Amino acid sequence: MADSVSAMPRYSVVIPLGKRIDDLGKLLAEYDQALNRTGHEYEIIVVLDGPRPNVEETLREACRTNRRLRVLELARAFGESAALAAGFDAAHAELLVTLPAYYQISPSEITRLLEQVSGDDDVLIAVRWPRAGGPFDKLRRATFHALFKATSGMRYRDLGCGVRVLKRTVAQEIILYGDQHRFLPALAARRGFRVREVELEQSPNDWFKGRYRLRDYLHGVLDVLTVFFLVRFTKKPLRFFGTIGFIAASVGGVFTTILVVQRLFFGVGLAERPALLLGTLLIVLGVQTFAIGLIGELIIFTHARGLKEYAIRSVFQGGSVERIARAGPAQGAAGASGSRNVTGLV
Questions:
Q1: CATH number of the domain that 96 lies in?
Q2: What is the pLDDT of residues 141-154, one digit of tens each?
Q3: pLDDT confidence of residue 2
Q4: Is the separation of the CB atoms in 166 and 123 below 8 Å?
């Protein structure tokens, strides 16, 4: 491994260590070899998501032989999103690279990924292709990505891949929490950054040896719904809750009106009429749902001065035809379409 490090590396590689870890010593060596072939200076930041006694000695040995390697240990397990955020905060380079602590792509493909970085791209995300997996794996991935596309309007082929390249401005604009790291491309596109997918060869060691529980699938669906709100209704909650409330109250109002007309003009009794209870319930639920949206709008309004609704990509100054500033994200763009047991739920 390399034994020197530049004061200002071109790449800061962040590797979060969570529940799943492959042969870490071998993996770090292969990552390091691939990064060396780029010909640029780099640093590797390994973030331990809580104490990991089983890998600490491996990391100590790696640090003794590679001065480019730094290890951050979080006080407890906060999740992969928090680990990535900690790595981004500790990074020095303007280009941030995220790599998983287990095999997803062939390590030799890292060089090819970094060669694709251009000035117009804010985020590059890897797509494992051709993708291994059986019929159930394909169905699970297709269902997840179809649900994500239906709710967010964005199309990506491999949201489960943790291999990405992003500019520092992206990390500064996006707040990662919970399991939102998986949806980093969508959150970046929402902020106006340019996102592009790059097909890379899947590693033959990309095997998931566990079994997904029903809770894992439920969490995946809830995460997609969370992104749905973040992408579409963060700044306009009344549009979502108000629409649902209006529909519910309208249906309830129609039911109740029909029953009242029948009682007043046709002598039909209201006793033991389930439709009356249903209509009243829909009206109450509709009003409450609308009120939730209205409260959300009031909260957004009171904090509006601290919210930035725009992002500046570049500035041209009089007398110059050159771009003289790059102060924020670019025009948003989503990705592009996408078997051995595969990594990750998606």
A1: 3.90.550.10
A2: 999 999 999 988 99
A3: 44
A4: yes
